[in-house]
User: Fold IraD/Gp25-like domain-containing protein from uncultured proteobacterium QS1.
Amino acid sequence: MLLQNFDGELDLYRVREEDQHILSVLDNVQRILNSRAGSLSHLPDYGLPDMGLILQGLPAAAHGLMSTLANTLLKYEPRLAAINIELLPQTQPGHLEYVLDMQLKEGEKVTFGATLAPQGKVLVRHLRRQNYLSKP
Assistant:
């Protein structure tokens, strides 16, 4: 459900109507990835596992996390039909960078970037963010 603004206090009226759906998906993906599995008793697999454990298991854990990311997002973001995740080369110690290529159920394709920081924070961004997502 769209409220009056997106994450980061971006006002709804500043985003073109055709792009609001994508930003809503981005907000929900970020919300899911910033939640920790087990924090909701009625949805024990909602969110990601403890990031401290993931970071201790690098580099092998970075590849294993890809299936967790895909399964969690497909289960809890109802607008996703498919997702392909690619691990990018590590540029900062303790940070993981992923590309999330997503197929929405309406047929639209969208690509997000996700950065997982050592503190457990996940930043999700649209990789085509110019002019609030509109195609050139």
About this structure: The chain is about 30% helix and 25% strand. Residues 1-6, 129-136 have pLDDT under 50 and may be disordered. The first helix runs from residue 17 to 33. Residues 5-133 form a domain with the Nuclear Transport Factor 2; Chain: A, fold (CATH 3.10.450.40).
